[in-house]
Amino acid sequence: MKKAIIYRRVSTSEQGKSGLGLDGQLATLERFCAAEGFEVVDGFVDVASGKLAVEDRVGLAGALDAARRLGCSVIVAKLDRLSRDVAFISGLMARRVPFIVAELGADVDPFVLHLYASLAEKERRLISERTKAALAVKKASGVVLGNRTNLKDAQAKGREARELASVEFSKKMMGHFGNLREGMSLNAIAAHLNQMGVPTIRGGKWTAKAVSRIQEWAV
User: What is the residue-wise DSSP string for 158-211?
Assistant: First the structure.
């Protein structure tokens, strides 16, 4: 079987959306690899914006390094899991690490992937322009934009949503901790998670303090 590295990414706001979550991507990638005859030898994850550079995504950087070392491809569920920016996709191609987009098929030419990235970037730009134009029209007609009358309530709801997201993330991460050897120190657990390419909720690297915080949230 052909060896492959799988890569998954969500932004913080996408974690709870159907079809964009890490579990949904994993299911898609597993079906694709089984159908196309790929053996998954490693997997990496990012919880981060698709606008970040490769070096700022611990998971993606790890996936590229592993693929280069093993001489295999990186497989993603959808192209936008890498980025919606055509320059970013072009930069990945320049690194000479082949990547496959499950949604588009195993035999799609890199040039076609570049075209898809260009279309995605154009679509994103048009959506942004339409949104700005619509807001400008509302503002010109005297509509007060934003929820200024309920600012405190909105801030409270925002804090509650962030806390709930942290709790859910912590519960999921405890699954990783449960697979580690009993008696490991917080520093050892943090080092193990970093080596696996598992990011924190903000897409950063693990520390002993971050591990301790996860354990407290999950209780």
Answer: HHHHHHHHHHHHHHHHHHHHHTSPTT--HHHHHHHHHHHT---TTS----HHHH
The answer, as to whether pTM is greater than 0.70, is no
Sign of the alpha-carbon dihedral angle for 17, 22, 25, 30: negative
Strands 2-10 and 38-47: parallel
Read off the pLDDT of residues 26-39 as tens digits, 9 standing for 90 and up: 999 999 999 999 99
Sign of CA dihedral 89, 124, 198, 77: negative
- CA dist 135 and 191 (Å) reads 47
Q: How many CA atoms lie within 13 A of 147 on its CB side?
A: 9
Q: Which residue has the tokens 């890569």?
A: 7
Answer positive or negative: Cα dihedral of 66, 69, 72, 74: positive
Q: Using CB atoms within 10 Å of the CB of residue 34, give its burial: 0 to 12 exposed, 13 to 18 middle, 19+ buried.
A: exposed
